[in-house]
What we know:
Blueprint: H1 11-37, H2 46-73, H3 77-88, E1 96-103, E2 106-112, E3 117-120, H4 126-161
Antiparallel strand pairs: 1-2, 2-3
Helix pairs in contact: 1-2, 2-4
Amino acid sequence: xxxxxxxxxxxxxxxxxxxxxxxxxxxxxxxxxxxxxxxxxxxxxxxxxxxxxxxxxxxxxxxxxxxxxxxxxxxxxxxxxxxxxxxxxxxxxxxxxxxxxxxxxxxxxxxxxxxxxxxxxxxxxxxxxxxxxxxxxxxxxxxxxxxxxxxxxxxxxxxxxxx
Length: 163
């Protein structure tokens, strides 16, 4: 932890988050589009559609996370201070005693002397929307994996009966 209580996120860490997030979102988006485009939407099976929607949801979650990281990366000391003052309100401006950078959920916490931490720096919709998209991706991906395993097992049983 940095010795300065008013330091924000690491610029290097945010840069890596942005770079990796853009790559992940791009690769997942391309995978989703290409896998459906191979056969067309109507001729693709339900497993392909589930995998594609899961990949699109994961790409959306990564893109939203990058969007929030960009907001934090653009906060210089002055903007960070203004964001915290706006978040805590005029009644508690003089009580701000530290900033608490967080990566999960993404945000900058403005800690006041009373023990309360107010979120600042990242739009309020970013974390809930990214979490919802990530959960959607996990559920659809898990369902797709289970269904694929069920189909393989069913085919294996059918083949062993006929021998």
